[in-house]
Amino acid sequence: MSTTYSHAPGFVAGDRPKIVTSRFEFADSFTLERYLATNGYKGLRAALSRPANEIHDDVKSATVLGRGGAGFPAGTKWGLTPQQVWPKYLVVNGDESEPGTYKDRLLMERDPHQLIEGCLIACYAAGLSQCFLYIRGEMALAQERVAAALNEAYAAGYVGKNILGSNFSVDIILHWGAGAYVVGEETALIESLEGNRGMPRLKPPFFPAVNGLYGQPTIVNNVETLANLPWLLCNGVAAYTAVGTKTSPGTRMVAVSGHVKRPGVFEIINGTTTFRDLIFGEEFCGGIRDDKQLKAFVPGGGSAPWFTADQLDLPFEASQVGPAGSMLGSGAVIVMDETTDIPAAALTLTHFYAHESCGKCTPCREGGTWLERILRRIVDGDGTDADLQQLLEVGAMICPGDFPHAANAQLGLTAVPFPYKMTTICFVGPSAFAPVHSALTLFRSEFESRVTKRVTIPVTAVSTAKTVTSVGAH
Amino acid sequence: MSRLTDKNLVIAKEIIARYPRQKSALIPLLHLAQEQSGYISREAMVHLGELVGVTSAEVYGTATFYEMFRFEPIGKYLVNICGTMSCALMGAHELMHHAEKRLGVKAGGTTQDGMFTLAHAECQAACTEAPCLQVNYRYRLRVSTADLDNLIDDLEAGKLSEEIPAHGVLAKVRQHIAPDRGVGAVSPELVDQAPAWLNGKAAL
Ligand SMILES: Cc1cc2nc3c(=O)[nH]c(=O)nc-3n(C[C@H](O)[C@H](O)[C@H](O)COP(=O)(O)O)c2cc1C
Ligand code: SF4
Ligand code: FES
Predict the structure, then answer these.
(1) CB A385, CB A377: distance < 8 Å
(2) ipTM greater than 0.90, yes or no?
(3) Domains identified in chain B and CATH numbers
(4) pTM of the predicted model, to two decimals?
């Protein structure tokens, strides 16, 4: 059974555990009234009734994995800040802009109080003195909903000074961006929050947990990660880890877009749900549109190397998807059917990353642009044989060595595991290459049939230099 | 007239006070300036620089990094059509061609009457509802060419002015922290010990 709601376009509910989407069925899920009527702020109360270090321990033992892309456990991250340096900050990453990804937007629009409660629990448990909630600039409705929820929560005593009458006091400051994908990277997010251009910082020394906002220890967590905490605190660690697997407990939000019968955002069980379930399962996408064949899919957001039908039985489990040559990333699957023009599809992603380069590293700034231009001329029918090699050479300047890719029985390929080596500060540069590399590795013939074979006109006795030229065959 | 109005100055000061460092308020203030005039003028940048204590060159340096900021007037309605992969797979390019024909401008251009600016956009976090677009950052999902025509008609007829304010206005609800409820900005220089609730005891 699956259900959709006109007030939450894109979201598809099912008969599965609902950890972060339990209120999506209500049209007024974003109001304090509805929130309080559905266990709202009970997790906070439960947390404040115990010492902070115990709450931190709960989050550690529940292995709440980061949902922003890297999948690092939140409890462990909170423990990485230096012991005696104060104040520490929480920066909430609501900059969601990875191609194919959306769940944080829904969580902010549909259940802003859940996010606020999650922020409070994190601040309490990890001793964070001020929270900045950074929402992507283009998300006007999410900004409105979170602002309204914060105003309500402040007035009702859930945020601010002496929360619930206790000695726990923390402000949550709504902050918003202005359109730059790279700002989603945590150190760029901090730069942006300091009022600067959102360019990533070099790690080391700028590991946010040690040296983050204003040089202070700073925890950066994704919206969905924090949205898990109220349920965890209400229901306990055992209930949380009872869902999913030991290494990937709980649920995760996944958006499946592209050529499927019913695209949507689903809260799936972590660790066990497979790509086949998601793409073909009746309770999920119900198969490829018009019953066509699956050609390829992007398993973890635009940055991820592509999979084909050979990888459909992999579950949402990082320890299996990594060795298979890709990553789960931000919970976004983009499906391409047999009619897809592969070079053109890859171009949309390479264009994206080239366009979003902040320009700080040469291999990304120059390499991304080169990749895009070469790919574009291939797509436009002006490419040459040599361009295919050149794409790989430019890519190797961004990511030297073997680039991860999936196994493919038909092509006789064995998998090259994730991750890759890189010459850039952040993943934007490599991400411009990932779609090119996947497309070329898995669908080389589509490129070969696209490029023109250059013909050299023979030089004759009367020729001048000008007539010694190459022409395209078209 | 491009400096912040007195009313917006009050809002600006409230925003600035929330941050441990004034410059942190810059992006929200740039949005405020853009809300006031539909774009960000030179004088506005000078004013913001004064407010947060940096040069106008620094303000400009930050502002130009971010795609949403405009430095000259644009259409009342900014129509951003997503062209990233999920939308492209579902016909975004065709939608853009149709929009270009319908509005008589190329992507990036503004109609003569100043009503519409058409632009290519990147993934808008609505990928399952492709192809999608935003008008002044308000979504339209699964947009067919006919839907686009209707949308333009409605915007021209002023039917959507309630829902979609003129370019520059982003969220219509602002955060406001009552002085007696807020903790106030926590500056690194003011704090050198652990927060009160880390005393090994339950807070409640
Ligand atoms: C280029 C780039 C873009 C990113 N964009 C986002 C984003 O939009 N949202 C997000 O939560 N994390 C994003 N991340 C990951 C963050 O750097 C960071 O790992 C994450 O916010 C940490 O939160 P988590 O541990 O709760 O997952 C991005 C990383 C890179 C390299
Ligand atoms: S990889 Fe690209 S986006 Fe990332 S820091 Fe370097 S230049 Fe900027
Ligand atoms: S690709 Fe268009 S909204 Fe994501």
Answers:
(1) no
(2) yes
(3) 6-63 (1.10.10.1590), 77-156 (3.40.30.10)
(4) 0.96
